[in-house]
Amino acid sequence: MPVGKPQQSESEPLDRVFGPDGLVSKSHENYEHRDGQIKMAEAIARVIRDKRHLIVEAGTGTGKTLAYLVPAITAAIQNKKRIVISTGTKNLQEQLMEKDVPFLQQIMPKEFSAAYMKGRANYACLYKIQRADDQPMLDGVDEVDHFREVREWSRETQTGDRAELTYLPENLSFWSRINAKGDACIGQKCPDYEPCFITRMRAKAENADIIVVNHHLFFADLSVRGNQFGKVIPDYSTVIFDEAHLIEDIVADYFGFQVSNFQFDELVRDAAALPIPDAMAVQSIMKACSRVNSVTEQFWLRFRQARDAEGRFPLSDSQLSQRGVDGADHPTALGEAYFALDDVFAAVISATDVFSEKIPEAESVVRRVRQARFDLDFIIRQADSNFVYWLERRGRGIFLQASPVDVSTLLQEKLFEKVDTCVLTSATLSTNGSFNFIRDRLGLKASQTDTLIAPSSFDHEEQAVLYLPKGMPDPRAPEFSSMAAAEIVRILQVTEGHAFVLCTSNSSMAALFELVSSRVGYPCFLQGSMSKTGLLEKFRETPNAVLFATSSFWQGVDVRGEQLSCVIIDKLPFAVPSDPLVAARSRHIDENGGRSFFDYSVPQAVISLKQGIGRLIRSKTDRGVIAILDPRLRTKPYGRDFLASLPRMRITGDLDAVGEIFHKS
Q1: Starting at the edge strand that comes first in sequence, how are the strands of the sheet with 210-214 ordered?
Q2: Is 49 contained in some domain?
Q3: Same domain, yes or no, for 370 and 468?
Q4: For residues 43 and 287, what is the distance between their CA atoms, to the nearest angstrom?
Q5: What CATH number does the domain containing 488 carry?
Q6: How far is CA 424 from CA 37, 65, 503, in A?
Q7: How many other CB atoms are there within 10 angstroms of residue 507's CB atom?
Q8: Are residues 471 and 443 in the same domain?
Q9: Do the Cβ atoms of 466 and 497 come closer than 8 Å?
Q10: What region does 618 belong to: left with phi over 0, alpha with psi -120 to 50, or beta?
């Protein structure tokens, strides 16, 4: 009887890639042997084999991208099963496809194919571009010139991806009219279906071993699987989520409901532009569209929050009718506006539906208006107690939204029970060494899920010092801003600039910038003064620069070397308790026997703080100081949870000791 071949351990093929004499060391100019990288890769190979899930925190310097790509590629080739990599941002998605994947395609012993998919709004629609000449959509000579360039580009590009248009302004006002977003797509009835960039993207993905997407596309796809629109991403056996700490909020968006004034305006515009040859029918549609415009204006006026400052506001119970003195139910002012809006949308459907079979654009308008009526009805009637209902105002946009309060059951049923293996990784997933928070928030069962903290290759005790100034007032005290500004000035004098000042709100950022920038002799930049990419470039190339920023600079930003030697954080990044979604989640936890502050607010703030601190040490040669101005780290019992969750560093309250970190040999 022949003896079977001994089973190969996970480490053997991984050693051939990551080991001191492995494929990476021979090909990568910045190769470093990283114990955490190998442990992470082994754990991922194991859970893919055993069809289990994994949560893995991989600190900065672990080399997590290659640590998940190599076992994913190996498994996809061996098992002939497609694997999806989902990233937190499009920037990381592009880095994988332009840098990491091509590198591995050169060195891996077996060939593999990879494709990337973005949301449909990133791609141009050939059909809409061809029709654009007949529609008034451009204002000014610049827009005409820009559209001409886009049209020429659309005839030459292989992908149709907006990211290729680097030579045009970031915000093209007409892009929303010519992109390939799904709700307006006419599908296989389109004359440009075969050359369509979406058709091409999907065909390439169908033939790929590895598909790279972003979280927004992944959960947009998950939310439509099984309904009339079908799937967007081809079937997969394993999904790896990078920057997994972002998942909960993204899921709440895509499994919720939303309507907006922009959406209503677009529906009217598209209905009015339908290519219908019947003059009487066109007149009827135009009349219905005109009524929608007048009624929607009255509808939005019924929401007091829409007239307030920008921000997110809870929707109070929106009564559509109330009992009168005559004993009968009568519509409220909101009810009258809502019923009038529903009636005019019904008129648009009635006027266009007769053309749906012959004119694909008419079918698209009818489908979208019906969906808008359904979504609006769900939100206005607050139909499900498991949702939170809220209004957001951003610029000229007014958005009514309904979001699920708890996404754990939803994710367990739709994702974790249906996919063989899900790997969730980020530099910040644990709090005080535990993964209970992220596991409970997302609905992963402990019996199905392995966990790992992959050690960083950085020595924070040698490379960094944590400065907690003494005598700072409570962040809610009126004197906090002035005292924080004075402390920042002193810190910058020690570090000679080279700093990020990360703030928890726009108002705090603006106030500190105003108080500090005029008192230091270093170039100071303010988030919002130019694009994020432009600001980072300016910061990198300006000696001794100081950048004041908020949330978007707390994560996904990489500045190596002496240029960023100091990260100053004004306050512990607790979520705003009055935010409708935060308030609803907290209430849900309390009503189910938990303690929302300790079960939700503190762990979430810990993860956010770890993200901000992670901006400082980005290589083995980096050195610097992290300064946290919030005294609650020392004065509140929960401060211990924050400190225990951070990389082990020397802690000091003596500013003179801070400068010593820069003079270590």
Answers
A1: 114-116, 210-214, 83-87, 238-242, 421-426, 53-58, 449-454
A2: yes
A3: no
A4: 63
A5: 3.40.50.300
A6: 15, 12, 27
A7: 11
A8: no
A9: no
A10: alpha
CATH number at residue 78: 3.40.50
635 in any annotated domain: yes
Whose structure tokens read 């929607």?
296
Q: In terms of C-beta density within 10 A (0-12 exposed, 13-18 middle, 19 or more buried), how is residue 461 classed?
A: exposed
Q: Which domain holds residue 76?
A: 11-113+410-454
Is 418 found in the same domain as 349?
Answer: no
Tokens coding 656: 């003179």
Work out the angle at residue 376's Cα, subtended by the Cα atoms of residues 372 and 382, and round it to the nearest 5 degrees. 150
Q: Where are the alpha helices (DSSP H) in 499-567?
A: 506-517, 532-541
Question: Averaged over 154-165, what is the pLDDT?
Answer: 89
The identity of residue 59, as a single letter, is: G
Residue with tokens 């005790």: 461
pTM of the model: 0.88
Phi first, then psi, for residue 385 (nearest 5°) are -70, -10
Q: pLDDT higher for 528 or 478?
A: 478
Contact 442, 452 (CB under 8 A): no
Dig out the tokens for 480 from the structure: 């906090």
Spatial CB neighbours of 132, under 8 Å, sequence gap ≥ 6? 147, 151, 174, 177, 178
- CA 175: distance to chain centroid? 21
Exposed e or buried b per residue across 130-139, where buried means at least 16 C-beta atoms within 10 angstroms of its C-beta: eebeeeebbe
Per-residue pLDDT tens digits for 205-235: 999 999 999 999 999 889 887 665 567 899 9
